[in-house]
Amino acid sequence: MNKTRRDFLKTIGAGAASSLLSSKSSIQAEAASIRPVSQPNILLLLPDQHRFDWISTTREIPVRTPALESLSKRGVRFTRAFCPSPLCAPSRASLASGKEYSRCRVKNNGVDYPLDQTTFYTLLRNAGYRVLGCGKFDLHKASKTWGLEGKHLLPEWGFSDGIDNAGKWDAINSGKDVPKDPYMFYLEQRKLRETHIQDFMQRRKTGKSATFPTLLPDEAYCDNWIGQNGLDLIRGVPRGEPWFLQVNFTGPHDPWDVTRRMHALYDGVDFPPPNSNTQFDAETHTKIRRNYSEMVENIDRWTSLYIEELKKRGELENTLIVYSSDHGEMLGDHDRWGKSVPYQPSVGIPLVAAGPGVKHRVVSDALVSLMDLAATFLDYADLPIPGDMDSLSLMPLMRGEKNDHREYVLSGLNDWKLVFDGQYKLVEGFGEGALLFDLKNDPLENNNMAGKAQDIQSRMHRIIG
After folding, report:
1. Can you give the pLDDT at residue 4?
2. Helix (H, G, I), strand (E, B), or coil: what is residue 289?
3. CATH code of the region 39-407
4. Distances (CA, A) of 436 to 29, 66, 78, 448
5. In whole angstroms, what is the distance from residue 344 CA to residue 52 CA?
6. 232/58 Cα distance (integer angstroms)
7. Which of 63, 143, 198, 388 has its CA 20 to 30 A from that of 4?
């Protein structure tokens, strides 16, 4: 309970307070009636496929993310954040519903988000927030029905306004003949759609080693278009009205398309090679990792632009800013690319938060999940957290009131599932046998302990069910 709520209850007396708190509906009514003008805004920056270690605060990869460094100094960086599922649709469904992968009702990218399942977006909107979003939502990935304005199903998900566009390959595959989503429609208006299609067809033919720059001008590059859409949405909110904005960037998801400006950012910069990869030579891997880093740095640039916009609006000190990702990217580790696997580069995600009430310069090793953001945002807005959510608010960690969060964190996809207790990670249903890793002593997951540490494996098995 925050100070505003406590002061309110103190002024009306203990008896009235007890009456107000006697039911869920009365709590909601009270929250709406006492909402101060200064109720915090919430900005969630959610790129697609940004792996946990690809930020400059880790000091292990020569990628530059000064905006995330700045946010980390003003807030909390979580070093052990997991996605509930390393695939777009189920991970984002778990976030929206605040439920574990096993309960979010979206098993894979072939299932749309069930409209009878409440989202935290709806709860914020019902409480008076202007709920906004732009970019790749992937909550109807199976049906691919965005509409040229990108408004389809936004109200049903709980949004007041926004622009939902297709992901990289969905835009190409659906819009080869005519645009089916707002980004391809935008390119069509600029007479750039065919240029973009031909670029992606060449990358599909070349494969992962395609690191040449796109011919699109900088302003027409998808993440730059998405970033501008988000700024325009904020600018449309009257001052003093609380808002939530989720910006779903399409990068740094493959293919490794970057603009000519971006392509020059990492000239001459070397990167460590992948772990256990035999597919490409060192030069090719370096080029791929340069492009990936260029996409990450470009999104970090947009993070800075949003911070500047909040300063101009006088809202920086009243806005919670959270940066994370739906899942990671293997980048050649273990001879794998993309996501969908239980290794750390796939299931591990960055998570940084800063804003009013958040303690500064905290590096937390608490076990946290992306889906915990649902309860965190409701808690931050001083709203009740539904009892059927698995999501646990991160606010006690962010305020410095506690150091621990979960005893273990879960993730899964289709038939496999994993549990991590802070040191050991057990994976079942992936491949022919179980995987058991000691991440404290084997962070690269090169030594499978399954069958060699039966006591640990049995204990973890009881948790994973």
Report:
1. 36
2. helix
3. 3.40.720.10
4. 48, 36, 23, 5
5. 8
6. 32
7. 388
